[in-house]
């Protein structure tokens, strides 16, 4: 057993105050994301935790890579038949979380998820390295498989089949767009008096509030 009571960090790198923030949370996200993407302390700025609620009522969280963001929402790709895909089919609400400890920043996004257009999924799928395309075609994501060799043998078969041709996008693989209705920005501050600014969508307008830490 290890006592972690004294493992503390002092947060003092920045601040988040109302006079300096953007009125649109996507623009605020853009500013923070660009800072994270340019920071040597952040290895994958677009890595985010995606939490969905499964049919048993329990949330499940996994790390996913953000691939695009617009004023409409945040886009990522996955297997529609995976556990996350089935959870989204059951409950289209999800929570996306970014944590950049080197910048002492966190963003929490509550959103409604929906599939993007098939032609957009096609375009992204064929922009990926061929190995990644084959990997998506090979993997029955989240399903039980007998062993590692099962995947490797299937990969060899598809490498041979598509050696001189384009890999078709599996119909079970594609993108989701998370359309936000609440976005919270968290900035670490000294003495645990952190800054928390929340944007909430009300009648197509974003309302801004400060939350106690």
Automatic annotation (TrEMBL):
Coiled coil: none annotated. GO terms for biological process: pyridoxine biosynthetic process. One of its GO terms (molecular function) is pyridoxamine phosphate oxidase activity. Its EC number is 1.4.3.5. It comes from the Bacteria. Binds 1 FMN per subunit. The keyword Membrane does not apply. FMN binds at residues 62-67, 77-78, 83-84, 106, 141-142, 186, 196. Substrate binds at residues 8-11, 67, 124, 128, 132, 192-194. InterPro entries: Pyridox_Oxase, Pyridox_Oxase_CS, Pyridox_Oxase_N, Pyridoxamine_oxidase_dimer_C, Split_barrel_FMN-bd. Pathway: Cofactor metabolism; pyridoxal 5'-phosphate salvage; pyridoxal 5'-phosphate from pyridoxamine 5'-phosphate: step 1/1; Cofactor metabolism; pyridoxal 5'-phosphate salvage; pyridoxal 5'-phosphate from pyridoxine 5'-phosphate: step 1/1. Homodimer. PANTHER family: PYRIDOXINE-5'-PHOSPHATE OXIDASE, PYRIDOXINE-5-PHOSPHATE OXIDASE. HAMAP family: PdxH. This is Pyridoxine/pyridoxamine 5'-phosphate oxidase.
